[in-house]
Amino acid sequence: MIRITSIVGARPNFMKVAPLHRAFGQMPDRIQSTVIHTGQHFDEKMSQVFFDELELPVPDHFLGVGQGSHSVITARIMLGLEPILINSRPDLLIVVGDVTSTLAAALVANRLRIPVAHVEAGLRSMDREMPEEINRLLTDQISDYLFITEQSAQSNLLLENIPQEKIFFTGNCMIDSLAFYKERSSDPELPARYGVRAGEYMLMTMHRPSNVDDREGLQKIIRILQRICNQRQVIFPMHPRTRNKLESLRLWDEMNAINGLILTEPLAYLEFINLMRWSALLLTDSGGVQEETTYLGIPCVTFRRTTERPVTVEIGSNILMSDLDEEVTVRTVNDILEGKVKRGSIPPFWDGQAAVRIRDIILQKFS
Ligand code: UDP
User: Is the domain of 163 the same as that of 202?
Assistant: First the structure.
């Protein structure tokens, strides 16, 4: 029996671990799968709802690290996880993505000589100002199995002296979830419940520190929204980080007053992917949303200078928009709404089977 423990901590982890846990569960005689939740995101809307919808098990351990500075959270994860791993000694620890929990958990397992698998390894924005970039770089250096989602990751890892035999091109687990739930949760009536028409509205997410942590960035976003909401309505489920910044910088009222802007709490996964499907375009700075729109063939305007997911630009429907440039953004959005759409295609191995491929490699390595 291979004993595998997967770590989840924040919103973008849940939809990546869910298909892995499902694939492991299909082999109950060979794999025992457990999940540890660090509690980096812990409230109903950023965490619990994903457990309910994605059929994730109740975590075997909940570390409850809560809020705090980056160092406090890292330290609490490590202190909470170490005794659990000493006690349970899984054969493999799986970490996904690029959040604080990813690196903190990998470090603990590495020191305990427990093999680490990094799912979504090798992505690089080449921007070391991003905390996620540091998490990606360091996690990959101490991982034993690196499961990658796109070819760019392979060359990045080889340049960082990671041996080829540790790298496996298995595809995209986040897309596994999207492919699995897309039809099951399809609801063409959903846009009407927001007072918008399918194919005519825009959907937005925005939460990267580089965009929302200072007044200047938020003011630029407000000005862009004031202009594009004149054309079409925008639904904006707001990340708690963005909302807190708007409130503390006293910009919330100005944002809230924009005509045609529909502000909501962060949405549950099934509702969000449904709204994405029926939208005319996405405005985002999210990593995962760039991939999901590429899979769905929906135009995506990404408010970032670089992306660690270049395949979404090279063959997908993603366009990068640096420095929150108001004129360029408004023109790009208008072009898309007028039908000048960048057509893309689906990258290799983004087919709903990535978790099964990862499982089969693990079975081969550990038997
Ligand atoms: N998402 C969601 N509800 C929302 C916004 C996003 O369920 O209101 C999902 C989205 O479909 C994707 C994931 O959250 O699967 C992306 O997470 P996030 O943007 O927080 O993280 P990133 O990918 O930027 O690390």
Answer: no
Do 224 and 297 lie in one domain? The reply is yes
User: Which residues constitute the domain of residue 133?
Assistant: 2-172+350-365
Please report, in angstroms and rounded to a whole number, the separation of the first and last CA atoms in the chain. Answer: 9
Q: What is the pLDDT of residue 198?
A: 95
- Same domain for 209 and 167: no
Q: For ligand 1, say whether the CB of 92 is within 6 Å of any of its atoms.
A: no
Whether ligand 1 lies within 6 angstroms of the CB of 9 is answered as no
Across 44-53, 115-124, 200-209, 254-263, least confident range: 44-53
The number of the ligand 1 atom at minimal distance from the alpha carbon of 267 is 8
Which ligand 1 atom minimizes the distance to the CA of 266?
8
Ligand 1 and 104: CB distance under 6 A: no
Burial class of residue 337 (count of CB atoms within 10 Å of its CB; 0-12, 13-18, 19+)? middle
How far does the centroid of ligand 1 lie from the alpha carbon of residue 208, in Å? 12
**Which atom of ligand 1 is closest in space to residue 12's alpha carbon?**
17
CATH, residue 321: 3.40.50.2000
pLDDT digits (tens, 9 = 90+) for 191-235: 999 999 999 999 999 999 999 999 999 999 999 999 999 889 999
Instruction: Answer whether 269 contacts ligand 1 (Cβ < 6 A).
Output: yes
Domain presence at residue 103:
yes
Burial of residue 187, with CB atoms counted within 10 A of its CB: 0-12 exposed, 13-18 middle, 19 or more buried: middle
Which two three-digit tokens encode residue 251? 């910009």
Q: Is 208 in the pocket of ligand 1 (CB under 6 A)?
A: no
Residue among 252, 203, 254 at smallest CA distance from 232: 203
Q: Do 92 and 366 meet the contact criterion of CB atoms below 8 Å apart?
A: yes
Is the Cβ–Cβ distance between 134 and 102 less than 8 Å? Answer: no
Q: What is the dihedral of CA 49, 55, 56, 59, to 10 degrees?
A: 80
* Catalytic machinery residues: 207
148 CA to centre of ligand 1 in angstroms: 19
Whether residues 58 and 164 share a domain: the answer is yes
